[in-house]
User: What shape does this take?
Amino acid sequence: MSFAISKQGEVVVVDVEGQLIVGNRQELKQKVLDELEKGEKKFLIDFSQTGYIDSSGLGVLVSLSKKIREQGGELRLANLNDDLQTLFELTKLDTLFQISDTRERALESF
Amino acid sequence: MADSHVALDVEIPSDVRYIDSVVELATRKCRELRLPAQKCTLNVRVALAEAISNAILRGNGDAHNKHVRVRAVVSDDAVVFDVVDEGPGFDLAADRPDPTSPENLEHEDGRGLFLMRSLMDNVERFQADGNVVRLTLRR
Assistant: This one.
């Protein structure tokens, strides 16, 4: 379980490798908040290598979305597999986030 | 009554770092039992992670000297997971805000029990040598 941060143009890309759950959600939150504090405004979280997300992981995404928006920034999500797509639909969080099928489409959407 | 057997019986320290290993063990068991793929990779994983997380953080109050037991009993028609903590339990029937309603959508918390109920066919809570949350998933 880890988070890899890279930069593609003006966009901070976070790859979630493994699970996003109660045991590691704070690590993701802190990494994104650190980038936000440095002045970054555009964020993409890529779930292509993610197994599952629990309610606390979803909660962190909601919290980050609010904080980024409050700073005048934007957050996009990409590459949800079928399980994750179902999870976002069940919780109606698919209506809260801008979700793209691929990283390329998400990057183009900023 | 259908024949049943214990497919999983583990006890872990009350520490969130142990959740994923138990969840992955349960997922492997589900695959061995030839449950539909999404029931293994979504329903079991997420609902069980929620139940164990609740047991550690709320039931046991995040006290690392306490323990959580996870047991799975399989029958011809269902898999039943019992997650047992050392706490006093909680009221499963208590009114809780709907996390999917527009006014609650941006709340960080409040989706755990909702997910367990959405992903399992039945969720029960009772006392039996500890506080038990029982998750039933039909095959």
About this structure: The helical segments of chain B are 19-32, 37-59, 112-119. The first strand of chain B starts at residue 4 and ends at 13. Residues 90 and 111 of chain B are 16 Å apart (CA to CA).
